[in-house]
Amino acid sequence: MSQGLKRLGLLPRNICVAILVAYRAVISPLYGDVCRYYPSCSAYALQAIQQHGVVRGIWLGARRILRCHPWAAGGVDDIPEPRERLATNRAGFVLAHKEQ
Fold first, then answer.
1. What pLDDT sits at residue 5?
2. Taking each helix axis from N to C terminus, what angle separates 54-67 and 41-52, rounded to the nearest 10 degrees?
3. Which of 64, 67, 71, 98 has the maximum number of C-beta atoms within 10 A of its C-beta?
4. What pTM value is reported for the model?
5. Phi then psi for 53, rounded to 5 degrees?
6. What's the pLDDT tens digit per position in 1-60?
7. Other CB atoms within 10 A of residue 42 CB
8. DSSP string covering the chain
9. What are the extents of the domains in the chain?
């Protein structure tokens, strides 16, 4: 597959990344540290989408948000290990080549 097609295939993933980065920069600071888990729910969703894609990433993020309630024990909750880890740039966008 050519680099151009790989980049085009990453477009939906990077659109979701841009939305979450904007949320984390603008809206999330208004709430403060209220998440019972580490990383926060928005950081978890961001990592899940970056490494697992849009569909599975949104599924994992939604499951995490449903687990985050006042009676949850909380703690460290990392995303499941992806089959292949993809590289991201400093802004968080997923790149067309694998992480070395």
1. 61
2. 160
3. 64
4. 0.84
5. 95, 175
6. 566 666 777 889 999 999 999 999 999 888 888 888 999 999 999 999 999 999 999 999
7. 19
8. --HHHHHHHTHHHHHHHHHHHHHHHHTHHHH-S--SEES-HHHHHHHHHHHH-HHHHHHHHHHHHHH-STT---EE-PPPPPSSPEEE-TTSPEEEEE--
9. 2-76
